[in-house]
Design goal:
Two copies of one chain form a homodimer. Chain A is α+β, with helices and mostly antiparallel strands. Chain A has two domains: 141 residues, PurM-like, N-terminal domain (60s Ribosomal Protein L30, Chain: A), CATH 3.30.1330.10; 174 residues, PurM-like C-terminal domain (Phosphoribosyl-aminoimidazole Synthetase, Chain A, domain 2, Alpha-Beta Complex). Chain A is 33% helix and 23% strand. The relative contact order of chain A is 0.16. Strand 2 of chain A pairs antiparallel with strand 3 of chain B, so a sheet runs across the interface.
Amino acid sequence: MSDIVALRKAQPRIREFALIRTLARRFARRTTQLIRGIGDDAAVLASPTQGWWHVTTDLLAEGIHFDMRTASLESVGYRAAMVNLSDIAAMGAVPRYVLISLAMPSNFGTRQTIQLYTGLMKACRPRHVILIGGDTSASKAGLFVSLTILGTTKSRRALFRHGARVGDDIYVTGTLGDSLAGLQLLARVPSTRPSRRVFSPLRASHKNFLINRHLHPAARLAEGQWLNNTRLATAAIDLSDGLSGDLRHLCEESRVGAEIELNTLPISAACRGYAKSRHMDAALIALRGGEDYELLFSAAPMKRASIARHARARGFHVTRIGTIRPRRFGMQMNTPDGTLKPIPNMSYEHFC
Amino acid sequence: MSDIVALRKAQPRIREFALIRTLARRFARRTTQLIRGIGDDAAVLASPTQGWWHVTTDLLAEGIHFDMRTASLESVGYRAAMVNLSDIAAMGAVPRYVLISLAMPSNFGTRQTIQLYTGLMKACRPRHVILIGGDTSASKAGLFVSLTILGTTKSRRALFRHGARVGDDIYVTGTLGDSLAGLQLLARVPSTRPSRRVFSPLRASHKNFLINRHLHPAARLAEGQWLNNTRLATAAIDLSDGLSGDLRHLCEESRVGAEIELNTLPISAACRGYAKSRHMDAALIALRGGEDYELLFSAAPMKRASIARHARARGFHVTRIGTIRPRRFGMQMNTPDGTLKPIPNMSYEHFC
């Protein structure tokens, strides 16, 4: 055996299997639809008799999507799950199963891995999303987390990006820009204005709110399922790249243009406070800001009263922010001074 | 807008979308079961009316699973696909859909991405596996490729790891150790014997065969589907970590032991030639070698004639290499000198 032993200093695979068993014991659950989860070559699922499967994958890379100097492993796991859950929300589907691929630097041990999984499951477990598989590997440099989530819809129906029609209203859920403000606070991005004098310092409660919105976003699953089940929306997308970027994607897929009322964008008091403290325009933070994981959707104007009534009854925060226009109109915004300007083409850039 | 522009030098997300469109045009295909592929928040699939879904994910990390000094991007894409296809083969399922998550170093452009996808699709397209989604990101250091493959079985049946029974025969498909020999040739691993004199140099055709087996392995999909559909196998696993490692996993899941006849291990002429040229024991290379992506399976002794007849008729290469023993027997091998020795616990270690 000595011939081929010590071919190279290797990542002990045998430890991987012990780790997988630990993780499976700790995090896996069974359902009647799940024939086999962790522990075989593939996870095995019984098909629902009707309806659709929705499958999405997203990865987070260290130094690009997160910075280990400001983010905990638990928040990385949590956000990795939420990015994917948000895609499922934007389809109007119910998330069911998650698979996780991890490449971990050499200083990672069982403790770090469990921290990451703990964050992942903090996002997944309350939503009854079951861990059914994954892969772990060493990484020469940096942490990589790639998730795949499978969701279902009972009926053969989904919120696609391509259904928006000219004349439709444009809505968003929640408030916009909080996550970008939180990221800038975490990264201590200095104000770009020459004056260093801060006229209105940011309240601690606002600061905490914004940082929490960045580190612990919430996918709008209930809102997505509501819009899909009631057929109220004609198209939807989640806001991961920011309103200006994701509205463009929805319009491209629907082959339409859009007009946004800049002063209607829903902005939290915390984000307004942040903008004021930095001498920035809060509406522009809301327009550009990414990783809010709110939903952007279009709906026929005749559904306006129905949407308002439903949203109120369910406690959903929904704001009408504009109108779908013909494609040749392009992407424009009404500014508070009454002029119509092109929406700048500036997708949100992730951490670095 | 100047307030928040240039938050940081960013990976241009907008290029990602152009790239995704290019890739979708070039690599995506439609089927009646695929409601929506690339271009929305998630891929949407109609459920087959009966049968099971099989889902697997595996990642390849630069410097761990491949070395860009010896591997082409095309071969990395190809191998990433094959690793996952092999898991689907080990379930006896038919692979249907693939999603790819990529983290790419900054020197990667469209050309490199397309090379990688070309390799991926060279593995997927002949097997009618359709690209339905993915995610791309920048990487601070090194290339990471994470794939998820979904497969189906028509009936509610699969080849699990946990079905092996005491007295069952143990089989493998193909030949073992070729990939490890190919890797050692690529990495120019020196012979570990003190003598530098080579008595029997390796033929060029053998060298090429072994390197090709490492760079272009073939998942045993037809063999897996045959074993599942005919119910000939009681348990199965694919050989990614090597016979000594993967047999251990199968035995652990089945709560049994195993006895292997070392001199029955199927070894190619090329691998024998390689072993001879390095003064190594070919059987030990076969026992340890990983990434062969052959299938290891167990079957009742009464199926022996049936398996031989079926395999001959279908042109499958199948070799009986041992017997399932009670758990207390452990994992032992009969060596050519007639002694019974414990099978060393040495899973295959990936590239570094």
